[in-house]
Design a protein that fits this description.
Number of strands: 8
Number of helices: 28
Largest sheet: 2 strands, antiparallel
Distance between the termini: 74 Å
Amino acid sequence: MTSEKQSPADALLTTDWAAAFLDSPDFAKLWMHFRGLTPEGAEDQGAARALRLLSEVCSYWYSGDDINDPYGPAMHMGDRRTAAPIDLSQADLIILFDILPHVPYPPLAARIADVLWLKRYGPNPYEHATEAVRHWSDLFPVERSLKSGLLQNWPRFIDLALRHNMRPALSVMRKGLHSVFMNASGKVALDSLRLRLSLGSLEVEERRAMAKRMQALGSEEESPVFKRQMIRMAVHLYEGVDDKDSAAECRAAIVRSWVSEAEERSKGSLAVANSLYESALQDFREMPRAQRLRLNLSALEEELPRRISESGQAALDEMMVITSDPIDISDSMEMSRRAVGGKTAIEALRAFVALAAPMSPREEEETARAIMVESPFASLFGETHYSSQGRVVYKTNPGEAGPWGYEAALWSGMVRQFDIKVRLIVQGVVMPTLELLVNEHPLTLMDFHVIVEGSGIVPGDRKMTIAKALYAGYNYDFLQAVYIEAPQIEHLVRNAMQASGLRTTTINGDGIEQELGLSALLQREEVVRIFGENLVFELRALFAGPVGPNLRNEVAHGLLSDAHGQSIHVVYAWWFLLRLVFSPYWNRLQKQEAEKDSGGTVN
């Protein structure tokens, strides 16, 4: 037995802690390893404390939302959670400081040094920041880190190096990532290039060489999704060196990829093909007319809208095909959690968006009429509607016409029924289940980008924007989510109408052409044909019009308070967007799996 004065760091060295670093594990594996080690073989209980601290530090979840507070708990369980840096005491920091020189694994050494920097430990905390970046740059060669959970931590140390202008480390990272990219393929090539671009300082010829390589990798890639991601990256690089012809050729390749996949998918599902044709049209419109002529693509200007129109009706089934067994809202918490728990991330998301069916205007109208019959006096008086700030925003008189072609009193009754169901769904289904979902599947921004990339309903130039809205809500930042989502919902509606050949502008008396707002767009009869009556009802009740939450207007004019930004309507709006985006993605996956199982085309 050693002296009682032995430090926890020294006691740690008597354990089998170093076995954790075999096979270059990510932080999740390290967390489980240190958590599972028992102190029986240690010389004293100091080892147990050291192992607990290492386990907690490895458990931190990197979100990247705040440069000064980048780590949070990995799991929330009601009023309980896993560890976070805020929990560390001064004594804990001393132990971590003592452990750091003995850590042989660069990612863990970088994480510990970063925590010491964030806690401003010691007389010169900046040394910990430089040490964190130095350890992370020791990862090279980096291929293994780009194939594991360590990938999501790269931006943290790049950001540290850039903010503090750590030139030697930046140089090592740039050269290392460039080397990886030039010798890799597939996802590793994409990820290494994204990281290299975030480091900046690209010479023109280096950017051009990267563009050519990414274009070549994209042309050889078999997966249509990765092919387009790679070639789209090449477009970005070519545009950075003002090579307009090469950029246009890459865009043409993306358009051809969408069309080729759409033609193949149309043999089994016109609904899938419709979303692919829409994506092709979006990318086609990004090409200057002169380049369309040069590349002999001008015919697509009429051909793509025609194909979209022909397959348009089938797209309605694509958006809302996800179904599940009905759930009794009164007993929904436990049932919804059982429906989502214990599944893969994709299966869990599928179950999550299917926990409640889209609301039907016919059902809400029937219910509202029944209530009006039971309470006839209510319809004898007008109504006054107030905003969340107490302003009068809408007044009606008995029998007066209201929004969307309904009688005013009837539409108000339909929105009230909508609100009741929204409250039940959010409180009884969405929030309890989201907690379980986040704990079991801590998805990253890039996970949501993959989903959005595979969902034909999102315009090509808004995919990362929508991914950020979904990611924000998934991390309970519903205020940020709705500020991103509300204007993008309007753009999504406008884009779908334009893709169907509908005009979305008006010309005023001065001859100036102006875009119609969301409320005006949703007045058009054709919008029901494009989206279906259920989806249009929810768009109207949630985002547009003076009766109801009117989120588009509230966001546009900065009227949402912090509290209102976490309201049931804002949470429902996020879940609505996830359902809207995930449904086509899921159905494309299902079609692909069905084709693989059948060994050919699904008929």
